[in-house]
Amino acid sequence: MPAPAIIFPADPLRPRRPDPHFAWEARMLRELGGEQYLVDHDALLAGEAEDAVRLVPRGCGPVWYRGWMIPSADYAAFARALADRGANLLTSAPAYASAHELPGWYDVFEGATPPSVWIPLAPTAGRPGPEQLAAAVARLGGHGPAIVKDYVKSRKDEWDEACYIPELADPAAVGRVVARFVDLQGDFLAGGVVLRRFEEFARTDGTAVDGANGPRDGEPAGGTTEARASDGNGAGGNGADGNGAGGNGRAVEARVWWLDGEPVLVGPHPDAPEQSAEPDLTEVRPLVRALGCRFVTTDLASRADGSGWRVVEVGDGQVSGLPRGIDVTGLLFALLAA
Ligand SMILES: Nc1ncnc2c1ncn2[C@@H]1O[C@H](COP(=O)(O)OP(=O)(O)O)[C@@H](O)[C@H]1O
Ligand SMILES: [Mg+2]
Predict the structure, then answer these.
(1) How far apart are CA 216 and CA 158, in angstroms?
(2) Domain for residue 55, yes or no?
């Protein structure tokens, strides 16, 4: 069995080179003697999967992907097009969807992650109606602060208008924030609307994150960047306001990279690469194993009262952002040995 190769997105301007955002990972892989191939991300998202993988050699065997986020349906087409060329994507399409979309991982992580409910929405369906929202709010307990996101991403940069709901018992506020979120996501809304109970996490200045002083990040989510979505900008959070580069006011998150149920890299979240945390993995490890996906990330935050670690979100390891400058040797070695 040959060592797996890694497929990176091609640079749209120079299609035989990796996209500049992933060039350093590709360079590291080369230095370790690993094989790399390229996918045309734009063609993939345009529904032309066969064309997108034209540069992947036939019969190349096992492959991982490291690149921009891919909607689950396009990932399934990607896996099929690769299989047609004799390349075996080591994360199957169902496994990708389980780790990438909140409803795919939530049941396994329930109790270890903020309580959440969701409303499936077709991309063109528009905003959820007031009855749908009221029913979702009731399922979430009916009162208290919450956050809104879709199955994959939030709009944390538009915290007050499109992410944070101060009080679920205020239907007008719920409707306003959800409507703004749905409008801003537009065609890029993934799956549907998720409501999650807001929890107090420890933040970089040692106090709790409160809703009025929530996260501020450098990279906008959704909108035109969503087609090139990466989770974290890889160059470090550089929010322009007081909560930005210094990290004050942001929940401290550790990103743990898991391969076959083992943590192969524990580092900062790419939005705050200077913030390190050492999470206790005792409770998370069996949950990752129960999820059964080979390569995933978990973002962990410490409760503000110090009572333990919470899973903020789970992601597919192939499309999770790496903090710029982190030593990825161990991670790449593990992927090549998988
Ligand atoms: N339930 C929650 N309670 C408190 N803060 C939250 C909660 N969910 C998310 N956050 C904050 O909002 C940020 C963005 O949420 P997240 O689910 O990670 O979305 P994204 O996929 O856009 O990164 C998190 O990094 C965290 O700081
Ligand atoms: Mg996140």
Answers:
(1) 8
(2) yes
